[in-house]
Amino acid sequence: MSDDLLSRPLTDVVGAGTARALRSLDLATIGDLLWHLPRRYAQRGQLTDLAALVPGEQATVLARVERVSVRPMRQRRGQVMEVVVTDGHAQLRLTFFSVRGPQRSLVEGQVGLFAGKVDVYRGTRQLVHPEFLLLEGDSGADAAQEALQFAGDLIPVYPATQAMSSWRVAKAVATVLRPLREIPDPIPSDVARARGLPERLAALRWAHDPPDRDSLAGAMTRLRYEEAFVLQVELARRRAAAMALPAIPRQGAQAGLLASFDRRRPFPLTEAQQGVGAEIAAELARAHPMHRLLHGDVGTGKTVVALRAMLAVIDAGGQAALLAPTEVLAQQHERTLRALLGPLAEGGMLGGSDLGTQVVLLTGSSATAWRRQALARIADGSAGIVVGTHALLSQQVRFHDLGLVVIDEQHRFGVEQRAALAERADTTHRPHVLVLTATPIPRTIAMTVFGDLDISVLDQAPPGRAPIATHVVAVQDRPHYLQRVWERVREEVEAGRRVYVVCPRIGEGGAAGSSPTPSEEDWWVADEDGVTPGTAVLDLADQLRSGPLSGVEVAVLHGRMTAEDKDAAMAAFVSGAAPVLVCTTVIEVGVDVPQATAMVVVDADRFGVAQLHQLRGRVGRGTHTSVCLLLTSAPAGSPARARLDAVAATTDGFALAELDLQQRREGDLLGVAQSGRQSSLRLLSARRDAALIAQARQDAIAVVAADPQLRAHPDLAAEVARMTADRADYLERG
Q1: What are the backbone angles phi and psi of residue 545, rounded to the nearest 5°?
Q2: Rounded distance between C-alpha atoms, residue 615 and residue 601, angstroms
Q3: Using CA atoms, how far apart are residues 676 and 688, in angstroms rounded to an integer?
Q4: Could you tell me the residue ranges of all domains in the chain?
Q5: Is the pTM of this model over 0.90?
Q6: What is the dihedral of CA 380, 386, 392, 393, to 10 degrees?
Q7: Which superfamily, per CATH, for 257-458?
Q8: CA neighbours closer than 13 Å in the CB half-sphere of residue 496
Q9: Mean pLDDT on 653-665
């Protein structure tokens, strides 16, 4: 069977009506259908757990008919047929607004598959007019014949729609698979034999109609390996191409700027910083671009490591750009770098060091005159370090010799944005790239497992850092909990410390589509849909000033403020003139106030795992024990509450990224999607299949090394082309 045949429309083999119904599942070709694998397998004799059904979802259940009843309709003529099915514990009601049709065959004791959309009526879960297929009992000759495909112990349950039930999908798959004798196989036969993998066609047969659990396990291992192998072949080819790109080696001089900084540095490097610094220095000295992720939890010293890399590049005649996601963070970085460098940041200026360079800040709100000066210093190379926001991506910005791009908190930038700054270098050499993060996004975790991204980890905090205690505060129906939260805030203020209060909205109408502003009385009262209105910065600040924090100066900070107002608010907070800062996530990354020892996150269930971890990192930056209080009205046992409990249980950024990966999936590894439903992965999980992916990577590297163009492997080349079709070439830039 050729690739052309795999691309044939389903109308050629299953008929126009079935093909039209399969379109509701986005299945158009024979290949689409073969890869539409069961999402689970029902074990004959083991009924579905009906208590686990989720209202609103399309479900297919294996259950036994417990009783059948018919009653007249209340509002109009006719009869309603109600069938109760059970798994032996829970029950599910099947409702038919007619006693005519196939439902007449339903009698007590029969076992069957029942499919439909789960809804709730008067507190009871039900399926209205479900499709069904009887597997046991007196089901009639036609139904018995239709059930023959389920003769085995394992019954495939497919993703289905109202238009196409699971068993109709199974019939279509059988129609396609039955006549096949061969199909293209992208895994070279010697690789498959070495790994003990079945052929592709056998694996597909066993996946769709498994004779037993062992055969199913072997089939799924083969299909997951195939997906990993094809992806790894493409990654191996791209890595080889990246290694061929030229970059200027950058190495710190023995008597240069880096050495001067190390001599004046008032603190020692941790062992972790020394080790990571050596890794980065070795890569900067190579003649092809570094692309490295530097992960370190809050307080582990990522900024110092990045600064030393920037100074090494400047020593070698290049420039470094630091890209930050917000103006507040960019300004913070510029102040931090100047403070760390001292006279070394004033090269060519009165009082500056002869070995020094200049640090330039460029943001969207930079004044026109300053912007003109900054662009000139960047273009002539006198600005060795350029700190900025998205403004650095402008076509107006031209570097003299961009040697290193440092990207802070990469989850705040899309793949295209991160690539744009790297392209500000000249056309003959690519800059080195160093990405900093405290919580890697799921796509990056996946890419790390897939071997595409070099990674360094700072797992050692400098001595003297304060621990952070995190607590989930369930405030719904517990007003005394909320009262105690504000009492704790006042205690921190009276001790001379600072407190962040973070809200999900700004206020004054909020963003388009935002929830209505709650009154003081209904902060934590759920609306009719069970969703708590998101608390707003401006409203809460006023309520705190006139209520529990009266007499305490409260400042506000949010993204709609002017740069001057933001600076004034932060200055008041840092100095203690306004020791409480009510803000949005504008302070999420990089803001460094050592006196801040407490954070209250209001409506914490509105934030993601990465956001919460980043927010929490704004406290615990001094020597005092710090606390982070996550206020929520999410009920115990809910997914939102479980997410908050997980954040409270650990400060390990990688552990939280793993949780984020489970919840949001890996994202599109070959495209621009960072996470979520759009995924280039069909079967693989970066978490579960890490060992299998490592094997596939090893085999792929060997195949590509021996045959870079895949001329001896046409089936593999075709599958790689299919996988990468219609995807922008972002991977090596991600």
Answers
A1: -60, -35
A2: 8
A3: 17
A4: 11-181, 257-458, 468-664
A5: no
A6: 80
A7: P-loop containing nucleotide triphosphate hydrolases (3.40.50.300)
A8: 2
A9: 68
